[in-house]
Design brief:
Aspartate Aminotransferase, domain 1; 36% helix; 17% strand; alpha+beta; 3 helices; single chain
Length: 92
C-alpha cells in the first residue's frame, strides 16, 4: 500500500530513507536532510502537518520519524510540504 502511494516521489530529492512500510505508517531516517526529527517536526507544524519524532524510541535516535499513511491528497500535501521545508533548510 505505502509503496503505491510514494511510487511517484523521488525520495533522494527529499533526503528521506524509508525503513519500514508494512503498516499504516512509514518509519524514516532523515539524517541526510540535515535536520533532526524535532526540528523537522517543528517546521512541518507550520504547514499544519504533524509527524512523530521517534528520538525517544528505544534503539532509534534523533534522526528518525514516523509518518502516518493517509489519503492520496493528504500524502501529496505532506510530500510537497516536506520538499519545501527541506529545500529551505539547505539555504540556512
Amino acid at each position: 500500500m505505502v509503496s503505491r502511494i510514494i511510487d511517484n516521489v523521488d525520495l533522494d530529492e527529499v533526503s528521506v530513507v524509508l525503513l519500514a512500510d508494512h503498516a499504516n505508517f512509514i518509519l524514516a531516517n532523515i539524517r541526510d536532510s540535515g535536520l533532526t526529527a524535532a526540528k523537522l517536526k517543528e517546521r512541518l507544524l507550520k504547514y499544519g502537518i504533524l509527524i512523530r519524532d521517534c528520538s525517544s524510541f528505544r534503539g532509534l535516535g534523533e534522526y528518525y520519524i514516523r509518518i502516518a499513511v493517509r489519503t492520496r491528497r493528504k500524502n501529496e500535501r505532506l510530500i510537497k510540504s516536506l520538499k519545501e521545508v527541506l529545500n529551505d533548510s539547505k539555504n540556512d
